[in-house]
Amino acid sequence: MNAQPAASLFINGRPVEGEGDALSVRYPFTGEEIAALREASLEQVALACQVAADAQPEWAAMAPVDRGRVLTRAAAIIRERNEELSRLETLDTGKPIQETLIADWESGAQALEFFGGLAATLTGQMIPLGQDWAYTRREALGVCAGIGAWNYPSQIACWKAAPALVMGNAMVFKPSEETPLGALKLAEILIEAGLPAGVFNVVQGRGGVGAALTTDANVDKVSLTGSVPTGRKVYAAAAEGMRHVTMELGGKSPLIVFDDANLENAVSAAINANFYSSGQICSNGTRVFLQEGIRERFLDRLAERVRNVRMGDPLDPETQHGPIVSPIQADKIRAAIQAGQEAGASLLCGGGGEGAFIPPTVFVDATDDMSITRDEIFGPVMTTLAFYDEDEVVRRANDTGFGLAAGVFTQDLTRAHRVISRLQAGTCWINTYNLTPVEMPFGGVKMSGLGRENSAAAIEHYSQLKSVYVGMGDVEAPY
Ligand code: NAD
């Protein structure tokens, strides 16, 4: 299989070959090389940022509605090519084609469509002050660096590019070194949709290239999707230049199932919240708290349904559960599973699996202090925990440094909202899980991050306010 792009980087409106270290792209299902790329050299990173800085003022000077039209055109092109793009996403990530066809580029198209449509509404405020008045202008930040994770590479690129570009920013995007292909397609599509050259650029590379972007003198904002340890480094580096940041980081989110929950829906949600994309989702509800009255029935039904999972070739439309993105990640997940067993938790189903595959894995008899309960595993591993009452579960659910997401299953309307109001999480669901429509702000609290993606709220994180006082009368001075 060959997925070799025209060149590794995309700078100033065209493909450019990287001059840094080699970057081999492998299809996670077979391990075969599907593209041989090169990282950007540090000079190329600086060049991409300079090109973006040069292109940005003219782009920002365009009428917002004209900028918006470019984004909505790009969304239409993505939809026309969804099949081909989804196949590439599957080759890059190993995720089943039945997922990538509906969840990856489609979500990216929705972001481009949403922010494109928002363009004409991006206004300031008029503030009456008696005779005088003031107004605000919402202005671009300048050059935004986007740095992505490997689980939703094209969606992440679109979620960052769409609000940044519609506000008149330019962007230099670095995809994860594991999944570098989708962002290059986005760059091509944006040019085809009418984006001026230099406004969206792609550089490839590992952490060093990300670090160089974060401290480049032309960069005004860094938006990272990644782990907490990387987030700490990027936030600290950005602080030195007083750069804005958005941090979409990891999680260990609670999914709380009360006795009165609809059993079948709760089990479905727990499956989606743990095993979709082979569990490689930041907002996953990996601590499933089960109230004592429903616990056994829930686990029986879960085990029954998980047995039917179809694992295999991700390009087969019937496949529901694909490989992990890389052998290194698969080994990390296996080590986490083994640590859970050694700590005394037992497996309801699943386990280490073989090669690139880790089957849906469910732990029972876990306790709050075990690593399988405390640490993000980023694989298909669910930890179930028993609980008795509401206060107890809220306390235990909040007993984590993370705060990305949370879910509650109950038929009791007041309890649902009461519990959600007490949970320390940025993105919450009642009687469903992991739905992230573009209309709804998405992001975390505590160590899970800063800022929000999606919705009009994202605009605030890609813009700054200018206040303008307008004097309408004479100016008095004391002498
Ligand atoms: P990672 O932190 O290892 O890498 C993320 C990105 O940061 C990569 O592109 C990497 O090259 C880059 N990077 C690494 N070191 C850097 C540095 N010093 N400076 C700048 N950039 C650097 O994360 P990952 O393994 O690719 O992704 C998995 C993590 O991402 C999980 O923790 C997951 O929860 C999180 N994630 C969060 C969200 C969200 O929206 N909150 C979404 C997806 C994934």
From TrEMBL:
<keyword id="KW-0560">Oxidoreductase</keyword>
<feature type="domain" description="Aldehyde dehydrogenase">
    <location>
        <begin position="18"/>
        <end position="468"/>
    </location>
</feature>
<dbReference type="InterPro" id="IPR029510">
    <property type="entry name" value="Ald_DH_CS_GLU"/>
</dbReference>
<dbReference type="InterPro" id="IPR016161">
    <property type="entry name" value="Ald_DH/histidinol_DH"/>
</dbReference>
<feature type="active site">
    <location>
        <position position="248"/>
    </location>
</feature>
<dbReference type="GO" id="GO:0008802">
    <property type="term" value="F:betaine-aldehyde dehydrogenase (NAD+) activity"/>
</dbReference>
<comment type="similarity">
    <text>Belongs to the aldehyde dehydrogenase family.</text>
</comment>
<dbReference type="InterPro" id="IPR016160">
    <property type="entry name" value="Ald_DH_CS_CYS"/>
</dbReference>
<dbReference type="InterPro" id="IPR016163">
    <property type="entry name" value="Ald_DH_C"/>
</dbReference>
<dbReference type="InterPro" id="IPR016162">
    <property type="entry name" value="Ald_DH_N"/>
</dbReference>
<protein>
    <submittedName>
        <fullName>Betaine-aldehyde dehydrogenase</fullName>
        <ecNumber>1.2.1.8</ecNumber>
    </submittedName>
</protein>
<dbReference type="Pfam" id="PF00171">
    <property type="entry name" value="Aldedh"/>
</dbReference>
<dbReference type="InterPro" id="IPR015590">
    <property type="entry name" value="Aldehyde_DH_dom"/>
</dbReference>
